[in-house]
Amino acid sequence: MSKQNSNMSSKIIITNIKLAEKDAFLCGLIENDLLAEAHLERPDVSPDLDPAAPVLGNIYVGKVHRILKNINAAFVETAPDVFCYLPLDSMKNPVYVKKTPAKKIAAQDELLVQVQKEAVKTKVPTVSTNLNLTGRYVVLTTENTTIGISSKLDKQTRAHYRDLLENRRTTDYGIIIRTNAKNTSDEEVLSEIDLLTEQMRQMISYSQNRTCFSCVHRTVPKYMAFLKNVHPETLDEIVTDQPQIFDEVSSYCRQYRDLENIPLRLYDDPMFSLTNLYNLNKQMERATQKKIWLKSGGFLVIEPTEALTVIDVNTGKSVSGKDPQKHFRQINLEASKEIARQLRLRNISGIIIIDYIDLESKEDQQELLDFLKKQVRLDPVPVRVHDITRLNLVEVTRKKVEKSLLEQVKSLDVSKKLC
Known about the structure:
Helices cover about 25% and strands about 30% of the residues. The chain has about 425 residues and is α+β, with helices and mostly antiparallel strands. Strands 4, 5, 6, 7, 8, 9 and 14 form a 7-stranded antiparallel β-sheet that branches. A 6-stranded mixed β-sheet has the order 17-18-19-20-22-21, with helices on one face. The chain has a 5-stranded mixed β-sheet with strand order 3-2-1-15-16. β12, α1 (about 155-165) and β13 (about 175) form a beta-alpha-beta unit.
């Protein structure tokens, strides 16, 4: 997360809201009173009873159901009749819990797998045998045993960490230094490496005595995962109206030097809820609608399909002056800023096709591409603006990790009998 300018107000809001008559737990990032990111969880369904899909980051004792040699992949069950996709090309040293006599991975093998991508549309979740435990400053991995350092750190800091970790190289685990390490001391980084290493060893040892489909590592709630990723210099405060979460977040922030000075507030106004204060229900409703109006009178139409997401830019109610091309240019630039915001807010991923209002000038087209690239750099998820096609369509891709906001809202509709 990064601020566009020094005057931007940025805060994390953690609260309960109601969407389409369903209760939801929201962790949202508010920038200048507008939702920039929204992450939803069901507050009323136990993860152990929820059959919808494996949870992102969880590690399971999975059973190999079938090997697909033609695509070098396998389907792995993480629960009865719940299948995940396991690509085999990157598998190096899986942790088996129960192995058949076959030398290579085979049907009926039981092994540890971690959910890398949630189910998206009709695609099943993707899992990996490269297990990782993520801390605030460090990620520990089992199969990628190299030393990695965030490319967002400056050259001098990266060189420092290479020297610091040279004697930490092992054939058992790899270490990735996260961007947040720039705000802390060597002692805290090394301490977290030791902590994660011990947690990994204990988890692997524990898994050898677990039955198939057991969850041996459960990821933290979304609001805690969000805190692991936050850059304190971009954040003004954390606000929640949940006393238990206030205590949990307070305890977490006290553990880290770079977080301990972030203001944490327990909102307790009985007359005006936190949801109403930031108009969260209305903002969430707009974030799931197809049409988004622009200040100029133009509008966007966002249409998710099975293969990709299409965004159409329209002039709408805006009135053109003497120079229509100049008018179209201004609407397209305004639309680009809103498109970047909507991609992040709605967590739209995969292939995105943008149908802008046609611009005749090559210079105007290039300016539009450059402006869009500048806007999507603010997104913490990697976004790539490719080019303009012969049909004047702009191609964009955004990394797939978590479900889209629309899919998260749909997943709230789970039978109460599961509780």
